[in-house]
Amino acid sequence: MPHLAKNLSAKINSRIRNLPNSEIRSFSQKISQIPGIIKLTIGEPDLNTPEHIKRAAINDIDSNDSHYAPEAGKEKYLNSVSKYLKKSLGVSYDPKSEICAIVGVSEGLNIAAMALLNPGEKIIVPTPVWEVYFGIIKMAGGIPVQVDTSADNFLLTAKKLTETLENEGKGAKAVIITDPSNPTGRVYSEQNLQKLADVITKYDIFAVSDEIYAELIYGDRKHYSLTQIIPERTVLLSGLSKSVAMTGWRIGYIAGPAELMKSMIKIHSFLISSVTDNVQIAASEALDHGDQDYIDAREKYQKRLHLLEDGLKKNGYTMATPEGAFYIFAKIPTKFGCDDVAFAKDLAEKAKVGVTPGSFFGAGGHGYVRFSYASSEEKLKEAIKRITDYTNNN
Fold first, then answer.
1. In whole angstroms, what is the distance from residue 176 CA to residue 168 CA?
2. pLDDT at position 54, please?
3. Which helix (H) or strand (E) holds 91?
4. What are residue 329's phi and psi, to 5 degrees?
5. Contact 112/254 with Cβ under 8 angstroms?
6. What confidence tier does 210 reach under pLDDT thresholds 50, 70, 90?
């Protein structure tokens, strides 16, 4: 077993070495050791990838499509993304110059951060938010400026964005919007986005719009996008991981103005060369023929949302109404205090229900915990029963 040469330890990139590991994943792995625990931690759909999507990949493998794909992506996939965005949002992106296939939104966030930020530049991040954003921005040499949205029902307002750009975020290069939100499930209205777009334009900054949960919005609400208002300054990130249970396939897309995409595609080619052939073909099938898959998934998740939301409210949890994604971000009942990490550990050990501490998601998350309802109704019902027993007995 090799050991690093003693004098080389101090020569490792300090920016990377000093980054903390993901608290969300570390906590989830730790409580996974508890026998019989029901984990409502990681945002991993329990559904299977639809058969027609799997078959498309198998057929592509059987046809020996196993060579390097073009750097930006296969023509079939890029065309499918372009058509889907036109159909779903009414926006037009040229598949030849304004779209790139990516290995999930995580890669897309890395690409966006590297393309937009010079070392020491700021990017505004409304919180609570998926913690990976912070590490990605810091790896690119940028500075994440957290904006606590808890006082505004967990949505970034134009007023708050303006205040931030005039103060701690002065000189920021961009703002990230996650819509629907992880961890809160909140959704931006068309009016919300228009007001934000006005501020973004006034201060002449970029917008990075993470829309990975766009197909999972419930009730009568509709998904809107900054690409419909300010496409000339917006980087769109999305994919198939959540909507059709393709997390393990690692496939998504990034879209933006052609001039910016030249830099992004260059970064992408240096990072991974190209995305796997058969995965792109499967994703193309999902985009072209997956409308019913989205509908079926939404129906399941909405039923689970109502089930878990009702159970939590009966036990004294409060929350801003979740409208999309598959998370509930709930405030811990007063009787348990506000230490969300201690509460989540105790709930895991005594009730055998795993949830994620809200403070892991940045400013505004303290005193909250995130529940993922991407689990079966059977597991959710049992989790509610255990939570009820825990609440009554502690």
1. 16
2. 98
3. none
4. -105, 100
5. yes
6. very high
CA atoms within 13 A on the CB side of 39: 17
- Residues of each domain in the chain carrying CATH 3.40.640.10: 67-290
What is the mean pLDDT of the segment spanning 201-225? Answer: 97
Q: What is the pLDDT of residue 248?
A: 96
* Helices (H), ranges, 173-290: 190-202, 258-272, 277-289
Across 122-131, average pLDDT? 97
CA R_g for the chain: 21
What's the rounded Cα separation, in Å, for the pair 224 and 308? 26
**Cα–Cα distance, 300 to 273 (Å, whole number):** 37
Residue 373 pLDDT = 97
Residue type, 223: H
Indicate if the alpha-carbon torsion angle 225, 54, 28, 331 is positive or negative.
positive
- In the predicted model, what is the mean pLDDT of the chain? 97
Alpha carbon separation from 389 to 330, 350, 384, 386, 394 (Å, rounded):
18, 10, 9, 5, 9
Instruction: Report CA-CA distances (Å) from 144 to 76, 105, 108.
Output: 36, 18, 17
Indicate the fold that domain 67-290 takes in CATH. Answer: Aspartate Aminotransferase; domain 2 (3.40.640)
d(C-alpha 112, C-alpha 49), whole Å: 28
Indicate yes or no: pTM above 0.90: yes
Q: What is the pLDDT of residues 251-307, one digit of tens each?
A: 999 999 999 999 999 999 999 999 999 999 999 999 999 999 999 999 999 999 999
**Residue range 335-369, pLDDT digits in tens:** 999 999 999 999 999 999 999 999 999 999 999 99
Question: What value, to the nearest 5°, has the Cα angle with vertex 176 and ends 126 and 100?
Answer: 155
* CA 391 to centroid of chain Cα atoms: 30
The tally of CA atoms less than 13 A away on the side-chain side of residue 258 is 6
Taking the CA atoms of 14, 28, 361 and 213 in sequence, report the sign of the dihedral they define.
Answer: positive
CATH architecture of the region 6-49+293-393: Alpha-Beta Complex (3.90)
Contact 244, 294 (CB under 8 A): yes
Mean pLDDT of 81-87: 98
